[in-house]
Amino acid sequence: MILIFLIFCLSDVSAQDKVFSTALNKGEKVSYDLNFKWGLLMMRAGEATFTYNSNQSVPGATSRYRLTFKSTKFFDGIFKMRDTLDCYFNDDYKLIYSRKGSDEGGYYLIDELWLNHGANSTQVRSKRYTPTALKIDTIMTATGEVVDMLGGIFLLRGIDRTKLKSGDKFPITVAIGRDLVKMTFIYQNQAIVERDNVKYNTRYFKIDIYDEAFESSKTSAEVWVGDDDNFLPIKVRSKLKLGYAEAYYKDSSGLKNPLSCRIEVGK
């Protein structure tokens, strides 16, 4: 479930000259509700919380972007999940190290990535292991910049939304385990998202994902990003082989800018 939510991250943005996360504020905290939808059935699956702070615990890093996820008590009975993902960035907003720790009902798994960014390519060392066994230890190389499942959200929020044009395409590469997953974001238009009697002005993207976890590569997922200077994802919808995964913005604190994309609260 958490992989599906994070799959909208992006990196090598071709429709803009340079991407850097000026929208993020050190000290911010943003939470999302995650849901599983199958036909008319909608179940709350868990909650994800993002935080961004100064951090120098990794050599060369100056900040850390963290995600924590926990499944609901009801979903724990189906598939319990407790995940923590950490991304460490340098002063140039380059991802240099990431770590994902998963507790899936007593099964513990660690994923680590070390990234070395060159002029035209990125080398990634990927390591996956449990407390008792090494599962993956490999080196991959890709043209352009590469991010992990979480690090791309950092870059996504640095897009200059005022320059977006319908049809703009954003090719991406995401390192997951021993795979480099290719995706393409396609900007569509402005749109209004409504949930619990609250409306948001957003920028709407379709996402093509070339991975067997999805029903098809074309429009595998969609994301609606708040149309203000925070550029926060408001809604994410991913097509699965069985049903859909949906994530909705819940609340936030410490944002750099007012959440002016929020336009109406129902009485």
Explain what you see.
There is one protein chain. With 267 residues, the protein is mostly beta strands. 7% of the residues lie in helices and 55% in strands. Strand 13 and strand 14 form a beta hairpin.
Q: Which descriptors apply to this entry?
A:
single chain; mainly beta; 15-stranded antiparallel sheet; 7% helix; disordered N terminus
Oligomeric nature of the chains = single chain
Overall residue-averaged pLDDT value: 83
Number of strands: 15
Specify the structural class: mainly beta
CA radius of gyration is: 18 Å
- Morphology call: globular
Distance between the ends: 33 Å
Q: β content, as a range? A: over 45%
Order of helices and strands: HEEEHEEEEEHEEEEEEE
Please bin the fraction of helical residues: under 10%
- The number of helical segments is 3
Poorly predicted spans: 1-5, 7-19
Show the helix and strand layout.
Blueprint: H1 2-6, E1 28-38, E2 41-54, E3 63-71, H2 73-79, E4 82-89, E5 95-104, E6 107-117, E7 121-129, E8 134-143, H3 151-156, E9 169-176, E10 179-195, E11 198-209, E12 221-226, E13 233-239, E14 244-253, E15 262-265
Antiparallel strand pairs: 1-2, 1-14, 2-3, 3-4, 4-5, 5-6, 6-7, 7-8, 9-10, 10-11, 11-12, 11-15, 12-13, 13-14
